[in-house]
């Protein structure tokens, strides 16, 4: 299939085959890497969080531990994205990943951040492309880090548990979640 669909399906299979520490590590890397490495453009971190919730519903990971891992990874990943943007914004945009994002998405993210300011960091969490771009854009735009961190942490405290709990609630119906994620992958392609 298309590369984005194949990537989503590979992650679905990888996450659902794990339990315990390896599951926490993979979920943290996917959620944290979303903004830090711009992988969210191809593979939203919410996929990993939904599937982590499914694993928690099956007793393969602890729900409280997963919630802490999810929030922490979201805050740390966005903070790294902020630093990358602050110290290497133009180079980031010219990089292979930055060119893949495309000028239009970068511009749309900049406009969103300019219009909304700090709340854009919180609101951007709920939109895949913005979730990956807003932290770097906030760093490039020299938003004060303390302000960024406040909105970043607030967004992570709302978004990550909501997505994990959606996966947890889906529980045994994870095949329906998996089919939904396949459609999301198709949309990304």
What does it look like?
This protein has 189 residues and is an all-alpha fold. It is built from ten helices and no strands. The chain is globular and about 45 Å long. It starts with a helix and ends with a helix. Mean pLDDT is 82; it is low at 185-189.
Low-pLDDT stretches are 185-189
Identify the overall geometry: globular
Mean pLDDT across all residues, rounded?
Answer: 82
Helical content stands at over 70%
> Which class of secondary structure composition applies to the elements?
mainly alpha
Distance between the termini: 10 Å
Tally the helices: 10
Strand content: under 5%
SSE pattern, N- to C-terminal = HHHHHHHHHH
Largest sheet, in brief, is:
none
* Number of DSSP E strands: 0
User: How much is the radius of gyration in Å?
Assistant: 16 Å
**Oligomer state of the chains in this structure:** single chain
Question: What is the topology?
Answer:
Layout lengths: L2 H14 L3 H17 L8 H13 L5 H32 L1 H6 L1 H14 L1 H7 L3 H13 L4 H26 L3 H15 L1
Helix pairs in contact: 1-3, 1-10, 2-3, 2-4, 3-9, 3-10, 4-8, 4-9, 6-7, 6-8, 7-9
Give a short synopsis of this structure.
With 189 residues, the chain is mostly helical. It has helices spanning 3-16, 20-36, 45-57, 63-94, 96-101, 103-116, 118-124, 128-140, 145-170, 174-188.
Give structural attributes.
disordered C terminus, 10 helices, mainly alpha
């Amino acid at each position: 299939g298309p590369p984005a669909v194949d990537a989503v399906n590979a992650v679905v299979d990888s996450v659902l085959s794990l339990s315990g520490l390896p599951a926490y590590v993979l979920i943290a890397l996917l959620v944290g890497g979303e903004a830090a490495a711009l992988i969210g453009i191809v593979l939203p971190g919410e996929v990993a969080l939904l599937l982590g919730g499914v694993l928690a519903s099956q007793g393969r990971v602890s729900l409280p531990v997963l919630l802490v891992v999810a929030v922490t990874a979201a805050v740390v990943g966005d903070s790294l994205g902020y630093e990358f943007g602050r110290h290497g914004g133009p180079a980031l945009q010219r990089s292979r990943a930055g060119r893949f994002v495309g000028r239009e998405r970068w511009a749309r993210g900049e406009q969103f951040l300019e219009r909304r300011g700090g709340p854009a960091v919180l609101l951007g969490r709920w939109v895949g492309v913005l979730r990956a771009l807003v932290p770097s854009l906030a760093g490039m735009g020299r938003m004060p880090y303390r302000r960024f961190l406040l909105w970043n942490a607030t967004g992570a405290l709302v978004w990550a548990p909501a997505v994990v709990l959606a996966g947890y609630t889906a529980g045994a119906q994870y095949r329906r979640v998996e089919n939904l994620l396949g459609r999301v992958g198709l949309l990304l392609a």
